[in-house]
Amino acid sequence: MIPALTLILLSQLAGETISRGLGLPLPGPVLGMIFLLVAMSVSERIQAIVRPVAQFILSHLSLLFVPAGVGIVAHLDALRAHGVGVLVALIGSTMLAIVVGAAAFVWVAKLTGSKADD
Amino acid sequence: MTDPFKLWSYLSATPLLWLWATLVAYWIGDTIFRAVGRNPFANPVMIAVILLGGVLLATGTPYHRYFDGAQFVHFMLGPATVCLAVPLHANLPKVRRAALPILAALVAGSATAIVSVLAIAKAMGAGPELLASLAPKSVTAPVAIGISQELGGEPSLTAALVILTGMIGAITVTPMLNALRFRDWRARGLAVGVAAHGIGTARAFQVHETAGAFASIGMGLNAVLTAFLAPVLLSLFG
């Protein structure tokens, strides 16, 4: 548990340092994810240490969005002021982007012969 | 005996109460989600947000006071993002073989997310500040806030729009892609990661591990791509 958390936080810390330090558009945790991915590819020991703790944290990923989600309450007035237009735009655009993205994936996968094997 | 109002004002100011309330609200949301056969419309994040939002409004508790307690949960978002390396590592061979489809879905999904939200909002009378706040709505919150700021949007409004987008994506993705008969978990995951960032990714993991891994990639790559695309595409709607 402790070695795993140490490695995870170290990856994030390295990510934050480099992202902030170089002013990259990539958020620190995403860069940290890449560092951990590289470390796991190099060392099977790191894989074994990190895997159970990461799987535990990820199995509760939805919970972690609740505090930010409640922030909508702080913006109810602003959202109400902009009316249904915003909601229509968000729903329409999000659904369209999902379909277009999935369709583009399937189309190019077919063209390049990249098969899903499950 | 202590005056109950004094007791409340003490408790409502401690991080303990709101940390606990966050866990309880999510527990209730997750229990309902399971009780209705994991129906995507009973999204546990949405249920928890509605419950907690109602409690805050009813008790007149300001959001920043709630957040003093909830920040311990919120903090874990960073480490959890790092942990996405684990499912990604397990799916690395699949990801390598799908590099071109990933790239195509990323560009198509990202551009569609930005252009369509601007077009619909503009048609419904949105002004320039609202358009700038909406443009990065599909991107993970910390990056979206930065983009919104640079475009002349309202960062805190963007944060709320990002969360709404995530919940909309998490709720609609499964029934919509089932109806359209998309069966490739890679395509389904990547599309929802691009369009609905971390909340969409969390949803993808509920459905299938491969979908979750591809959603993680979509979310990460789209954070970078939108930073470049949003200013260009927004200028078309000036």
Please provide a written account of the structure.
With 118 residues, chain A is mostly helical. Chain A has 2 domains: 1-59; 68-118, no CATH class. Chain A has 5 helices and no strands. The longest helix of chain A is centred in the C-terminal third of the chain and has 37 residues, at 76-112. Chain A is extended, with a radius of gyration of 20 Å. The two termini of chain A are 32 Å apart. The model of chain A has no long low-confidence stretch (mean pLDDT 91). Chain B has 2 domains: 4-75, no CATH class; 82-235, no CATH class. Chain B is built from 13 helices and no strands. The interface between A and B is large, with 78 and 116 residues. Chain B: It is found in: Membrane. Chain B: InterPro entries: CidB/LrgB. Chain B: This is LrgB family protein. Chain B: Keywords: Membrane, Transmembrane, Transmembrane helix.
